[in-house]
Amino acid sequence: MEMKKRISLELRNRNPAEVAELVVDNCRSSDGEVEGLTDEYVELEILSMVNAGLSSLSKLPSLPKLLGGERYDNTISGGLDTLAEKCPNLTHLNLGGNKIKELSTIEPLQNLKNLKSLDLYSCEITALDDYRDSVFELLPQLTYLDGFDQEDVEVPDSEADNGESFGSPGDDEAGPPGDDDDDDDEEEDDDEEGSEGDDEVGLSYLMKEGIQVSSHD
């Protein structure tokens, strides 16, 4: 389906100014440009154009509230200055599967001051020596590159799902996964041994009885 027609269908009789999220994956642009999207989409926050035959972003309209963009699996090789100009508030950007080869191609993203997460999976740029260090140096505003921060800590599911601005790495994930569970187990053991409330003592007694039965078996 052509991109212009797909966007029209996705409107579902709504006014473009009312649309906050637009997904037009797997449609086709007739000339490699963004089609059917206009400056009327003033409230658009999420725009997904995965596998849409895009080779250029030069016709991208002004989308001042856009926070997240998916351009995965297209043939974009440059012209990213358009993103910084038209979508200045982007926080998350997925450009994986495109024809991005050089660091100079993503240099315009320096102007996206709020950009916290960038994905370049399956782009040739990922084969460059010191790829990750070079990108983080070029784009110091980034928190996550390809789903991991500079310390190779994976983006927490809560932040990835919410699409919200990321906090400082480590704020919510101090220690490796599972540490909190161990702490909880220790606290439960303490409760079993030293709790004073009747309900807690009863629970402790039952649990101990269960342990004794298991040991006999």
Layout: helices, strands, pairs:
Layout: H1 3-11, E1 21-23, E2 46-48, E3 68-70, H2 81-86, E4 92-94, H3 103-106, E5 117-119, H4 131-138, E6 144-145, H5 157-162, H6 179-194, H7 198-216
Parallel strand pairs: 1-2, 2-3, 3-4, 4-5, 5-6
Entry keywords:
2 domains; chaperone; Leucine-rich repeat, LRR (right-handed beta-alpha superhelix); 6 strands; Leu-rich_rpt; globular; U2A'_phosphoprotein32A_C; leucine-rich repeat; Acidic leucine-rich nuclear phosphoprotein 32 family member; 7 helices
How would you describe this structure to a colleague?
Residues 154-217 are annotated as: Disordered. Belongs to the ANP32 family. Keywords: Chaperone, Chromatin regulator, Cytoplasm, Leucine-rich repeat, Nucleus, Repeat. This is Acidic leucine-rich nuclear phosphoprotein 32 family member. The protein has helices at residues 3-11, 81-86, 103-106, 131-138, 157-162, 179-194, 198-216, and strands at 21-23, 46-48, 68-70, 92-94, 117-119, 144-145. With 217 residues, it is α/β, with parallel strands linked by helices. It has a 6-stranded parallel β-sheet with strand order 1-2-3-4-5-6. The chain is globular and about 45 Å long. The chain is built from 7 helices and 6 strands. Helix 4 links the parallel strand 5 (117-119) and strand 6.
